[in-house]
Amino acid sequence: MKTIEIDDELYHYIASRTQSIGESASDILRRLLRLPASPQPFVLVQENMIDELKTLAKMPKKKQTLSNQEKVVKRVEYVLASSHFVEESKGVNRFLQLLSALYRASPEAFSQATENVQGSERIYFAKDEATILANGSSAKAKQIPDSPFWVITNNNTERKGIILCALMNAMELPEALVSRVKNCFI
């Protein structure tokens, strides 16, 4: 048995891949490298596995450690704590800040969620202003910053909170975070 030194990031990666209590680092690496369970002389790692390891080594740390949901949560919490959000007096601007954060953190989940969030007579989200304006006699829309989406904006503050919470629920974000956002629009 040989001893090798590895950096903390690699150690945490190996440890996070543990499948059973007591599994050794050698067992984990053998499984990840698709090597036989017991040592074999002169076993060569396949070319594609070397490429996979190189790709893994190049990935930024956050991508390895944060799930998509965790990234969204962190982005929303950052906005909620920012002075720009806290000091903003207009509900529509806070509404747009949070929508922008949700989109930037997870464009695909945001896009899917917007398909499920709409009113009984109005469409709340669209890829163009005309679609929203066509679905309401007095509808007003604004583009969500840093996104291709438009959102209806002439709802009252409470309705904006309801729309945000419905979107966050459709994105399967934690209920505690959804409640915090709701409280910003009461």
UniProtKB/TrEMBL annotation:
A GO term from the CC aspect: cytoplasm
Keywords of this entry: Cytoplasm, DNA replication inhibitor, DNA-binding
Location (main, coarse): cytoplasm
Domain Negative modulator of initiation of replication SeqA N-terminal, chain residue ranges per copy: 1-36
Pfam families assigned: SeqA, SeqA_N
One annotated GO molecular function: DNA binding
Locations listed in the record: Cytoplasm
GO biological processes: negative regulation of DNA-templated DNA replication initiation; regulation of DNA-templated transcription
Keyword Ligase: no
InterPro entries: Arc_rbn_hlx_hlx (IPR013321), Ribbon_hlx_hlx (IPR010985), SeqA (IPR005621), SeqA_DNA-bd_C (IPR026577), SeqA_DNA-bd_C_sf (IPR036835), SeqA_N (IPR033761)
Domain of life, per lineage: Bacteria
Annotated ranges, domain Replication modulator SeqA C-terminal DNA-binding: 75-183
Its job: Negative regulator of replication initiation, which contributes to regulation of DNA replication and ensures that replication initiation occurs exactly once per chromosome per cell cycle. Binds to pairs of hemimethylated GATC sequences in the oriC region, thus preventing assembly of replication proteins and re-initiation at newly replicated origins. Repression is relieved when the region becomes fully methylated.
Subunit-level organization: Homodimer. Polymerizes to form helical filaments.
UniProt record similarity statement: Belongs to the SeqA family.
Record NCBIfam families: PRK11187.1 (NF008389)
HAMAP family: SeqA (MF_00908)
Protein name from the UniProt record: Negative modulator of initiation of replication
Organism annotation: Muribacter muris
Taxonomy of the source species: Bacteria, Pseudomonadati, Pseudomonadota, Gammaproteobacteria, Pasteurellales
